[in-house]
């Protein structure tokens, strides 16, 4: 026995008995292969706490105990470790994630086979969100990747919430290996508030909520109608357009800005309705032009109506 615990026991035994014990052990225990009496166990260590492996050896003569981590020998002078009790105790102070792995002790006294025992160091740590997702503005049909980088041991499972609902993955929506949420072919209904959730056996962590805003390029829904009017008639041409942000509408006459016309504009939900009132004295092309500015740049769409004029014949 090499542990100090056993030495303490001996202190209380009369000197004579010690002699006797030593004598007995010399006769009965001489020269045998080492035996590991306390095998290594899996050690669950909290980050920044100390981890200790015990490898208690029964050996006569005293065994030489060596340690390995992931099959690499640990040197006695390696300041990362503290080795005590003639090598029967390995202390890893202030455990880091890089310390996890398999640890083995080997006892060798030159007689028979060396004895070996292995155990694992497992870090335990509540999940933490290391990198939060951020607000994004995306164009319809584009793709979104919201990051969510977490820490924790065991490695946390990542899920995502939209509002309060758990997101179900499908052919369009996936959760990538590192926890990021990927949405293909963004739709209008993907707009909303998202959070990632990291969970392991020690706890749960939520990311900050972030917003996905979905933008849509300007689109004309109602095109102005072609008309044939009598000269000098005031016509009303209607055009409506939608998009996110809501587009602005301008009117052109033969490709130029119009003078002497009035425009009536109303917003109905996300649709802007524009009515041009113009007095027609000659045939012309009237163009409704809708423009919006979104994350993908500016977008302009046009629709043109031809207004033809019929000459009024005065009746005699
Ligand atoms: C960890 O080990 C170091 C070095 O032996 C010691 O100073 C420290 O008090 C220990 N910390 C804890 C939390 O046991
Ligand atoms: C994200 O958007 C929300 C509202 O849409 C806002 O309250 C929040 O401050 C934004 N966060 C950042 C980091 O810009
Ligand atoms: C815009 O035009 C479309 C197509 O004509 C029509 O269905 C819709 O009701 C219009 N919207 C508004 C707000 O006028």
Automatic annotation (TrEMBL):
What's any GO biological process attached to this entry?
A: homophilic cell adhesion via plasma membrane adhesion molecules
The UniProt entry, under Pfam families, shows:
I-set, Ig_3
Q: Which GO terms describe its cellular component?
A: axon; neuronal cell body; plasma membrane
Extract the PROSITE patterns matched here: IG_LIKE
Q: Which GO terms describe its molecular function?
A: axon guidance receptor activity
Recorded hits in SUPFAM superfamilies, A to Z, give: Immunoglobulin
The signal peptide, as residue positions, is 1-32
Ig-like domain segment(s): 34-110, 127-211, 217-308
Keywords assigned by UniProt, alphabetized:
Signal
> Signal: is it a keyword of this entry?
yes
Name it. Ig-like domain-containing protein
From which source organism is this entry? Pangasianodon hypophthalmus (Striped catfish)
